[in-house]
Amino acid sequence: MSKNTNPLTKGSGPSINVILTAIVVVVAVGVIGGVLWFNRDGGTSAEQPAGPPVAAELLRKPDSNALLESPDSKVTVVEFLDYQCPACWDYYTNLTKKVEQEYAGKINFVTRNYPLQKAHPLARPAAQAAEAAALQGKYREMYHALYDNYMEWAVTPDGKVSEDVAKAQGLFEQYAQRIGLDVAKFRADAASPQVSAKIDADLADGDRAGVKGTPTLFINGRKFEPGADVKTWEQVAQAFRSKLDAELAK
Predict the structure, then answer these.
(1) Intra-chain end-to-end CA distance of the chain, in Å
(2) Mean pLDDT, the chain cut into blocks of 10 residues (250 residues total)
(3) What does each C-alpha distance from 209 to 34, 60, 150, 213, 223 come to in angstroms?
(4) Domains of the chain (ranges plus CATH)?
(5) Closest CA to 213 of 95, 93, 88
(6) FRET partner for 171 with CA separation of 20 to 30 A, picked from 10, 164, 221, 228?
(7) Which distant-in-sequence residues (6+ apart) come within 8 Å of 234 by Cβ?
(8) Beta strand pairing status for 76-81 and 216-219?
(9) Are β-strands 76-81 and 44-45 bridged in parallel, bridged antiparallel, or unpaired?
(10) For the Thioredoxin domain, which residue ranges apply (predicted)?
């Protein structure tokens, strides 16, 4: 998404090569400002009109991972995401990471897995890493590690979607060690039937909720749509915060 300053330059001081690689990735997959979503077949689909609210019990299960919890649970955001999806990374960098900081204690923020395996071969291994970390109480830390280090594992040096599972899993184990996990348990859990079943259940719930691609976000059961006139990340963020604030004010 265009803005006065390149949104890909924000963060912890990436090198020029990393910035250029990020730009190549975004251009190569046709993601313009995160207004397009990847579908299950690896294409893109434009925004659709908002439909009726999706049942809360479908969007959030008792074992769903939460980045934020609110005492009154007045507002719940649910994001179906793919860790290797460039649009998800754009949303994380420009919107959801900031929402997580700004609305701590005010909203519930739940994440669900929706790996687009055909387009992103490392999406499921990344989801397995996140779920394995969750079994040791460190989901939030792994979620951030995966997105904060996206350029390290998700793309190749020439800006293509990486298919190197062995490299990615090695890096995921490094992240696990950094955040204080039992790495042997992490490795076993990531490959376990329990974790695989959890990811499959998230995918099935996403399909039932009408998810067609990633990222798909719901605010109190209603799909968030930035709007056809939204052109910048500032406008996306304003639209998202306005919906949150309106729900909080009810």
Answers:
(1) 32
(2) 34 38 40 44 42 91 98 97 98 98 98 97 98 98 98 96 98 98 98 98 98 98 93 96 97
(3) 20, 11, 27, 12, 10
(4) 13-249 (3.40.30.10)
(5) 88
(6) 10
(7) 3
(8) antiparallel
(9) unpaired
(10) 48-249
